[in-house]
């Protein structure tokens, strides 16, 4: 089942998200010289035990896992603002990798509609950066985004997934308060949980239960919307896959080999996204709809 969450709100009077009235906020983190790391106070740790060393490793890695915001207004309904929220991974000083379905609405804006595509690191989320799609593979659900400026965070590195190995994920689903990370609505609320880190393990490094998708592996847990485009990390913080969809209670990720081939290829936009005939695949990021 294709799944999305939509809400309508009155911006002048405040706005409602997931049955709770709230103004999004986060700790204001200023850039520093040298090694940067996201504040632990702005991270939500889920599904496992995290000692101080592991939290430190994940917080430094999280700097390079950027939130993606697509914001658009349709020409057929100019009084409604739409948002899609997803996750991306820094692959060079000015390029990030994400799922195509995260940026699909921006890529396929109807004539006369207006939209923006922006990303931000959790270490400096109030410094949103404009981005443009420079490469996409719709069939395998991948997109490369070029940033309008270079960043100083460390690009990700890749490794091969192994069956039954413990892994960690970083993404931008709803936080425990039911809020999504909307870059143009952030405030300085230090209690805001910006992103979610989870622990699980690889169920199958090369899954065979989704027809026509021999380039995906699976994890023994279904993650929430907003994680799309986020990394699956091994114990050494290497990326072994990119979270893409859930199916029958598991999360499926595009394997590192496929991601590396896509990044290094000269492929331009091609094909269309396919759910492989299944009605249970989730292929949309977190979404909210509101009044301007």
TrEMBL record:
GO terms for biological process: proteolysis. Transmembrane segments: none annotated. One of its GO terms (molecular function) is peptidase activity. It comes from the Bacteria. Pfam families: Trypsin_2 (PF13365). The keyword Transmembrane helix does not apply. This is Serine protease. InterPro entries: Peptidase_S1_PA, Peptidase_S1_PA_chymotrypsin. Keywords: Hydrolase, Protease, Serine protease. The keyword Isomerase does not apply. Gene3D superfamilies: Trypsin-like serine proteases. It comes from Paenibacillus lacisoli.
């Amino acid at each position: 089942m294709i799944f999305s969450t939509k809400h309508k709100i009155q911006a002048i009077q405040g706005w409602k998200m997931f049955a709770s009235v709230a103004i999004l906020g986060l700790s204001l983190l200023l850039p520093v010289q040298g090694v940067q790391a996201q504040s632990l106070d702005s991270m939500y740790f889920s599904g496992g035990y995290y000692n101080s060393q592991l939290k430190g490793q994940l917080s430094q890695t999280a700097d390079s896992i950027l939130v993606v915001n697509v914001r658009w207004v349709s020409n057929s309904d100019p009084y409604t603002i739409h948002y899609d929220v997803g996750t991306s991974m820094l692959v060079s000083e000015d390029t990030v990798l994400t799922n195509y379905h995260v940026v699909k609405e921006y890529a396929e804006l109807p004539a006369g509609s207006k939209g923006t595509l922006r990303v931000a690191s959790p270490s400096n989320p109030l410094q949103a950066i404009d981005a443009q799609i420079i490469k996409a593979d719709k069939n395998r659900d991948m997109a490369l985004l070029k940033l309008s400026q270079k960043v100083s965070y460390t690009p990700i590195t890749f490794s091969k997934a192994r069956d039954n190995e413990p892994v960690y994920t970083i993404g931008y689903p709803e936080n425990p308060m039911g809020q999504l990370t909307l870059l143009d609505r952030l405030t300085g609320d230090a209690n805001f949980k910006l992103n979610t880190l989870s622990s699980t393990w690889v169920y199958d490094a090369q899954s065979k239960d989704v027809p026509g998708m021999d380039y995906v592996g699976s994890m023994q847990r279904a993650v929430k919307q907003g994680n799309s485009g986020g990394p699956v990390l091994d114990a050494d913080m290497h990326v072994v896959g990119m979270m893409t969809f859930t199916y029958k209670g598991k999360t499926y990720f595009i394997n590192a080999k496929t991601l590396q081939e896509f990044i290094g290829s000269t492929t331009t936009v091609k094909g269309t996204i396919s759910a492989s005939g299944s009605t249970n695949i989730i292929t949309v990021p977190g979404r909210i709809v509101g009044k301007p």
